[in-house]
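Table S2 (text version). Query chain:
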Amino acid sequence: MIQRNDGAWQLELTTEFDGLSGERALSASSCRALTEAAVLTLALILNPDVERRASEPEAEAPSAEAPPTPLHVALGARAGLQLGVLKELGPDFALGAGLSLGAASLWASAGLAPQQNARVTGSSGPGGRVWAGSAALLGCWDFTANTPFGPCAGAEFTRVEGNGISVANPRNAVAFWASGLLGVRAGVRVGSVVTLRVEGFALVPAQRPSLFLEDVGRVVRPEPIGGKLHAGADFELR
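Corresponding structure-token output:
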């Protein structure tokens, strides 16, 4: 029954559902508001799950997964100095290619120490004209991104070749050895694909074979600890 009392609309609602009866007293300031309240009350009586679902907190949306770290390919060029590979301090050049995944990178490179004269004694007399080629595999870690800096470790295989000078019958000879590499490198990123690098490495030969030339003698033997100091650039391929 609906009635108006003191400016308010009132409704006494009697219901019977599944053998259960009940009474509700509703009041509103307008007839329309009273009607809407009555409709909502009947809906809740007929479907009580609506109220439970409305009171339950919404399930949290699944967090978005972080995108996978991309794998990059880069080419590198280096120029610098070597010490302890050939007899004298001299220039050294290298070209390489690498794969980087986040802060870690793996590099393979080929190097060349240009020709120099190695005398057996003094600055004249018998000796050899020698040069060295190398192949290296190096793993590096950069602690920072825009100004990368970090350690590197790996191995290098060296081939030294020479021929005699100041002798009647010059002959050729070749020597090989492997060395451990340990060093650090620093860099500065220029744009999105270029990184300028400076790096230094200590070389520790696993063996120290001598390069002997016939009628000359020993002209080259690696030092117990050698070194390389390089500067250059890496170019990332996108």
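Notes on Table S2: The longest helix spans residues 31-46. The mean pLDDT is 84.
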